[in-house]
Write a structure and sequence with these properties.
This protein is α/β, with parallel strands linked by helices. The chain has 19 helices and 16 strands. Strands 10, 11, 13, 14, 15 and 16 form a six-stranded mixed sheet that branches. It has a five-stranded parallel sheet with strand order 7-1-8-9-12. It has a three-stranded antiparallel sheet with strand order 3-2-4. A hairpin with a 2-residue loop joins strand 15 and strand 16. It is globular.
Length: 555
């Protein structure tokens, strides 16, 4: 835009010709669950991110569900899909009033700076370049992001999971497997054909005169730790060359648009630019100012997201609590929470969006010996008591983000559990929960039998500076993406805009149940895959919904 108008795992399943009744039933169940998961994901995107799943795609899924045998599961999915269909009836309006690019063009706003887009977690397609025998038919097909993913995950579940995992110790490829990010604008414009991710923004940019020569989508393998992206793919080095090329060809500095975890990756990139080798590029301090005009961070979890912690602890988040009843039970029996956790833990990138700053940012929990009950008044009394005794205790119940006018609501108690009387007892603060993740991983992520070591390591420093002098020193590599341990780079002309939605219910704290986890069928669990607790779906009191405490946010 013109400056004057800058106003965005286990052993693989092998194909087999044998298709007995058990196999048919298993495929039917898993296919149904994939449809249900897709429907839930669509609902979450429509409600929280305003992403579009077209009505024609919903019709296609609904037709597939209607062809399934009669069952309670089939009826539940049809009801959910009909609800989605009704919620999206008015989403397809392509008139000028609903095309921001056309509105901007009508106001004489046209292309100016080249644009580089950096996607977030899960939104770039992943392609198979080398795999085990079970995945041989899927060479160069997307095992994440398209219909081929559904086919592989449906028919050969263990095979798909094995190829989606990363070596958690090296941060790179498991032996004999190579999965790479798709490239070009098609890498993240749509996911699974119907969810638009970057497509609307690309369309809006095209409306004001942009084209492939002035737009670059810097897709990446979102599973890898940021250090692994550079080590394996030279992603950061390529991004430097791309920005230099765009300036050379256009004569103008670039505008960067990042979303979700892409914002954290950009923070890492800014630190990496100046850091000396081998951890950084060692570029002049003026490089960023010379090549980037402005940055838009859209819904960036710069201080992390609580749901990532529960994913790494239990293989759980609020989305899984939506799958209740028979759907939830079947999902957990086929892809157990522990198996999901193992997959999440293999992805070093997840650590980059763990909550950062510990008790100073997220609160410290409740003092030992204190508890709260399901009634608001008694809970506030307990909170007041615990706060009053904080001088003799190591934790306080309050948190910096407690709602205004009520600073003792217990958000510092990140995880709580209920006893038989409905009384809530603190289990973990955010800080102690993260410590628990790394401690537990020593056992649950152990290397396969016959190998030494473990398949898990700590990639990110989620801490808080002890004093100002700490910020005057160059950060160590694990702290590159932590804004609390970094100062902004010397780029006086650089503009950074942080853009968030408001009024969007966002996960903040949880009630968990050890009994629910213990009820998981042991025969589907592999070594290390039993989780200690799950989110308590029956906890619907004291501002919790299905075990989740929501606050105003954008994730």
């Amino acid at each position: 835009m013109p400056p004057s108008k800058e106003k965005k795992a286990g052993k693989a399943d092998k194909p087999s010709p044998r298709k007995g009744k058990g196999t048919t039933l298993r495929r039917y169940i898993f296919y149904s669950l994939l449809v249900a998961l897709g429907a839930v994901a669509v609902g979450v995107y429509i409600r929280r991110k305003e992403l579009l799943f077209g009505s024609d795609q919903i019709d296609t899924v609904m037709s597939a569900v209607k062809s399934l045998p009669d069952s309670t599961l089939r009826e539940q999915m049809l009801v959910y899909l009909e609800t989605l269909q009704q919620s999206g009836e008015n989403e397809g309006d392509e008139s000028v009033e609903n095309r921001p690019g056309l509105r901007a063009f009508a106001d004489n706003i046209t292309s100016y700076h080249p644009v580089v887009m950096i996607p977030g977690f899960i939104t770039s397609g992943l392609e198979l370049w080398q795999g085990k025998d079970c995945a041989a038919p899927f060479f160069r097909q997307r095992i994440w992001g398209t219909a081929s993913m559904v086919k592989l995950a449906t028919m050969y579940t263990s095979c798909w999971l094995q190829h989606m995992e990363v070596d958690g110790l090296s941060g790179g490829d498991p032996e004999g497997i190579r999965v790479r990010s798709a490239q070009g604008l098609q890498a993240a414009d749509y996911v699974v054909g119907g969810y638009w991710v970057w497509a609307k923004l690309i369309q809006a940019l095209a409306d004001i005169g942009y084209g492939p020569e002035s737009i670059h989508l810097a897709a990446y393998d979102w599973r890898l730790p940021f250090k692994g992206l550079e080590k394996r793919d030279r992603y950061l080095t390529k991004l430097v060359h791309q920005l230099e090329s765009l300036k050379k060809l256009s004569g103008r500095k670039a505008v960067i648009i990042t979303h979700s975890m892409g914002c954290n990756l950009w923070a890492y990139f800014m630190s990496w630019l100046q850091a000396p080798a081998p951890d950084g590029a060692g570029l002049p301090s003026s490089w960023l100012n010379d090549h980037v005009a402005s940055v838009a961070l859209i819904a960036g979890p710069m201080l992390g997201a609580p749901k990532v912690a529960t994913g790494l602890m239990f293989g759980e988040s609020q989305e899984f609590t939506v799958l209740s009843g028979s759907i939830g039970s079947m999902l957990n029996s086929i892809v157990s929470p522990g198996r999901r956790r193992r997959l999440f833990r293999s992805m070093g990138s997840a650590q980059s969006v763990l909550p950062m700053g510990g008790a100073r940012v997220w609160g410290g929990g409740i003092p030992k010996g204190e508890s709260t009950t399901g009634s608001s008044s008694s809970a506030e009394q307990a909170a007041a008591s615990s706060s009053a005794s904080s001088s003799a205790a190591s934790f306080e119940v309050s948190a910096p983000d407690d709602p205004p006018g009520s600073n003792k609501t217990g958000l510092g108690a990140f995880l709580q559990k209920r006893d038989a009387n409905g009384t809530l007892h603190p289990v973990h603060s955010v800080e102690s929960a993260i410590e628990s993740i790394f401690k537990d991983a020593e056992a649950s992520q152990a290397a396969p039998e016959g190998e030494s070591g473990m398949r898990f390591r700590k990639w990110v420093d989620t801490g808080y500076p002890t004093d100002v002098s700490q910020l005057q020193k160059p950060p160590a590599e694990p702290a590159f993406s932590n804004p609390l341990l970094n100062i902004l780079p010397p780029a006086p002309d650089l503009t950074i805009a942080c853009m968030y939605g408001v009024g969007i219910p966002t996960e903040r704290a949880y009630i968990i149940s050890e009994e629910l986890a213990a009820a998981q069928p042991s025969e589907v669990l592999e070594k290390g895959d039993r989780v200690s607790a799950l989110i308590d779906r029956d906890a619907n009191e004291f501002n919790y919904t299905a075990g989740v405490r929501f606050v105003d946010g954008d994730l």
